Amino acid sequence: xxxxxxxxxxxxxxxxxxxxxxxxxxxxxxxxxxxxxxxxxxxxxxxxxxxxxxxxxxxxxxxxxxxxxxxxxxxxxxxxxxxxxxxxxxxxxxxxxxxxxxxxxxxxxxxxxxxxxxxxxxxxxxxxxxxxxxxxxxxxxxxxxxxxxxxxxxxxxxxxxxxxxxxxxxxxxxxxxxxxxxxxxxxxxxxxxxxxxxxxxxxxxxxxxxxxxxxxxxxxxxxxxxxxxxxxxxxxxxxxxxxxxxxxxxxxxxxxxxxxxxxxxxxxxxxxxxxxxxxxxxxxxxxxxxxxxxxxxxxxxxxxxxxxxxxxxxxxxxxxxxxxxxxxxxxxxxxxxxxxx
Length: 341
Description:
Pfam families: Beta-lactamase (PF00144)
CATH topology: Beta-lactamase
Distance between the termini: 12 Å
Strand order of the largest sheet: 2-1-12-11-10-9-8-7
Keywords: Membrane
Order of helices and strands: HEEEEEHHHHHHEHHEEEEEEH
Number of strands: 12
Domain Beta-lactamase-related: 21-328
Number of helices: 10
Number of domains: 1
Shape: globular
Main location: membrane
Subcellular location: Membrane
Radius of gyration: 19 Å
CATH class: Alpha Beta
Structural class: alpha+beta
Helix content: 25-40%
CATH superfamily: DD-peptidase/beta-lactamase superfamily
């Protein structure tokens, strides 16, 4: 977009954010140079702490990209291949997973495995859906119990079906292959080389003062946080925290080959499937414009709503994030409408 168009976009998104009483941040930059960055609402309602453009927000499923990058780093090392059968690493664990499921099936949401947080099930964002006590879900191996016992739903490679459990399985595999804890692996292979100094997997029950509390409901007088709705510490399928500036660094680091060789990034960004319900395509760990150059991260969970889009040609990053379940979607819709033109 020409700079004048970006100014118009910023004005439109700012208007929608204010109309929606957004709790979050809207950020636009070109190759790291800020065009627009504005924070709205409160990071902590009870103590009236405002959000800032540097506030750390939950990412929900947007951090699946970190898992994909960590897995691809192990492919680069030769410790894994995209066609590695997951059974060769899981052994007797998770016996309901089909023997034909590969690393690429998990990355592309085509494994067909049963999902512990089934996106096709009828549940609301404020439901308590975890069957393992949330305080026990702090380390990767603890999730084995959560993802165990779910019957295979379709044959490997048969169809695209967004699958949270598949990314937990990827984290389990990454730990066992690398010998590092998943959070440590992501830190070493993704966050540090990307220069994301203020990103990581924070515990929901001990958030630092610069992190936004995730609120389940939009009403400004509701203090219901997401601490009982989500694992106490995020893992392979989501739950990292980041800032809008860190996300800009992330996109540019990927484009510049600072995290993985550009050929590996291109493989992650190569479209595999179209999801008509999302109006997007999917690669490996990343959403892609349905018809356009943009690479997209998206997350939706109790107390979290986020989309970050990067145009590799113009190196423009637009990030819209809220510390409420639904808060960002109106602004995201306004941005999608502007892109459609």
